[in-house]
Amino acid sequence: MNAPRHSRRRRGSVLVLLAFLLPVLAILAVFTINSAYMQLTRTELMVATDAAARAGGRGLSEYQDVDMAKEAARITAAQNSVAGSPLRLSTAANGDIEFGMATPMVNSPSKFGFTPVSIADVVAGETANAVRVAGRRVVGSQSGPVNMIMSGFVSEAIFQPQQSAVAMQVDRDIVLVLDRSGSMSWKEYDWPRGKSPWYTSTLVAGVAAGKLRVRKGNYYYAPGVDQYEYQDWAWEEHYELGEAPPMPWDNLVSAVAAFLEVLDGTPQTERVALASYASSGSLDLHLTSDYDAVMAELATLGPNGSTAIGMGMQQGQSAVMNELYARPYAAKTMVVMTDGMHNRGIDPVNVATSIASSSQVTIHTVTFTDGADTERMQNVARIGGGAHYHADDGLQLIDTFREVANNLPTILTQ
Fewest CB atoms within 10 Å of the CB: 143, 145, 318, 383? Predict the structure, then answer.
């Protein structure tokens, strides 16, 4: 039987409609796919550019060298994929990496402006505290443009996204929380083979030098002389071994001096406070940019007593959170140093947990010698979002404090 005429007309109308809609649907599909791909590419480019800027800013902070900062930015960018390819930056003089000054805007201090400084001027010594990275996937860039997934008469064959990011080194308010317990006065002498302060010949020489007294065959320290003064004499004068080993406290004083020396050479303005602990904690000096005052205050302190690390940290927290001295836009950093085991007052782990929950203070920890409780202090640093460092001897302690001083935080301002 033949189909009714009106049915044939309906089938013909549907075919005409499909013939019209299919190209429209195809165009919409191409548009949707390409739009999603473009958005994904923009996101990848933003992530890669931000990471490169942070790495460059960190490199400038740690090394104070433009070439190493550019290399850090370049390597980090290449480790991030954009549209299936590594992001490549030009490190040429007029390339994708710039140096400059990031400063708060007058009318909006929470926002920052960027003023470029030429690389030649930075190398010559002009201050720069920020790195700007241009992430580009355009014609003529190191990575070239992005090819569209679906191209033709309804879209371009390529996509050319660009992204810029500025990372600046942040001013810091820093409190040093230092161990002045009795163990910081315990000197260790690595006597060479065949030399000792306890040999009879050395003891007899000590009597002749006025360092010892002898009575009924027993030796005693002369009035005003202790074991360290006697051993220093034996080391330096009797055996002529050079300068005697310093007290751990003396090593710490030298390390703080090295720490302040590094801060004094950075383009940022750091304020430093001083807290310490023995059988209890004390806030010895409020935040100040006068580093001579820090060393002068440190000279008034000395080792004695127990090891109340947590109580010292509480004093340190009060220093960096004091609104009379702390700056609202400065990063807050606490450096806790110890050569021993916590044995008095509140546990430093509990203090770190309290600080982490109530304020944005980064806590770094430094342990000194093999007598320090490294496991506990590693935990304190982990809770405080900081790093843990260990020094076996005085020279390593000085290097460690220098490293902490160079560990400037960076933030993205653009």
Answer: 318
Domains of the chain, by residue range, sit at: 5-169, 172-185+247-412, 200-238
Using an 8 Å Cβ cutoff, are 382 and 347 in contact?
A: no
- Backbone φ and ψ for 148, nearest 5 degrees, come out as -70, 150
> What are the beta bridge partners of residue 174?
272, 333
The first and second tokens of residue 33, run together, are 């796919």
- Residues 316 and 352: their CA atoms lie apart, in Å, by 11
Q: Report the alpha-carbon distance of residue 80 to residue 76 in Å, rounded.
A: 7
Question: For residue 333, which of 374, 386, 293, 281 has the smallest C-alpha distance?
Answer: 386
Torsion of CA 50, 51, 55, 57, to 10 degrees: 10
Angstrom distance (rounded) from CA 173 to CA 273:
8
CATH class of 172-185+247-412: alpha beta
pTM of the predicted model over 0.70: no
β-partners of residue 101 are: 115
Please give the backbone phi and psi of residue 163, each rounded to the nearest 5 degrees, phi first: -145, 145
**What is the separation of C-alpha 68 from the centre of its chain, rounded to a whole number of angstroms?**
17
Q: How many CA atoms lie within 13 A of 64 on its CB side?
A: 15
Query: Measuring CA to CA, which residue among 98, 307, 273 is closest to residue 182?
Result: 307
Q: Give dist(CA 121, CA 115) in Å, integer.
A: 13
- The vertex-390 CA angle with 129 and 405, nearest 5°, equals 15
Q: Which H/E stretch holds residue 117?
A: strand 112-117
Do 323 and 356 form a contact (C-beta atoms < 8 A)?
no
Residues 6 or more apart whose CB falls under 8 angstroms from that of 413 comprise 102, 111, 112, 114, 130, 166, 167, 168
Output the average pLDDT for the chain. 88
pLDDT tens digits for range 373-387: 999 999 999 999 999
Q: Is the dihedral of CA 193, 199, 205, 211 positive or negative?
A: positive
